Amino acid sequence: MHITQLNRECLLHLFSFLDKDSRKNLARTCSQLQDVFEDPALWPLLHFRSLTELKKDNFLLSPALRSLSICWHSSRVQVCSIEDWLKSALQRSICSRHESLVSDFLLQVCDRCPNLASVTLSGCGHVTDDCLARLLRSCPRLRALRLENCARVTNRTLTAVAAHGRALQTLHVDFCRNVSAAGLRCLRAACPRLTLRAEHSAAMIPDQPPRGLRSPGAALRKQLLR
């Protein structure tokens, strides 16, 4: 029996055991299998282990996506975590090659995946508060947001959670040094039912921006207490 003689349900089940590259390679063999590859039902879960994977065409973003994780464990994460104003020319050059990858990808997710329920970002040092705020607005069914070692995440993300995370049940902001204890207290007061975890975040040394930049904690308290 040839594989193309299997019905659609069996083919989807078969594809589900393959990784993204294997799915794409199998889809190249004939138009019938390409149709299976492009079936949104095959893509409720996406996991990426490096930022370069985000640029491949071996996956599909669709309203069927429910769970997304981007976990980057690389020595370059340490470079990304350095404050921008302290980076050397070499460090800025390294970051310039990938600093917009996660944010650009998440913007696509915002446009195509409104039913997303869970997002995990680890080692994504360039993802911004604005990007996460848009994600919360665009995915009203988001129930879990787990952030780890995301250096640019500040109290503004907590503000966005309080304002737009109506369905959110779980929030992790672990090792996010620019999230403060005051911001966490304000969020707990605003969202008492939210399961909030912030391992080491408030205890870490936050960025020390040049004089004149406003403290994110003051902005958070002002917005949450309105």
Automatic annotation (TrEMBL):
SMART domains: LRR_CC. The keyword Cytoplasm applies. Keywords: Cytoplasm, Leucine-rich repeat, Repeat, Ubl conjugation pathway. It holds the Pfam family F-box-like. Substrate-recognition component of the SCF (SKP1-CUL1-F-box protein)-type E3 ubiquitin ligase complex. Promotes ubiquitination of sarcomeric proteins alpha-actinin-2 (ACTN2) and filamin-C (FLNC). Directly interacts with SKP1 and CUL1. This is F-box and leucine-rich protein 22. It comes from Physeter macrocephalus (Sperm whale). The lineage of its organism: Eukaryota, Metazoa, Chordata, Craniata, Vertebrata.
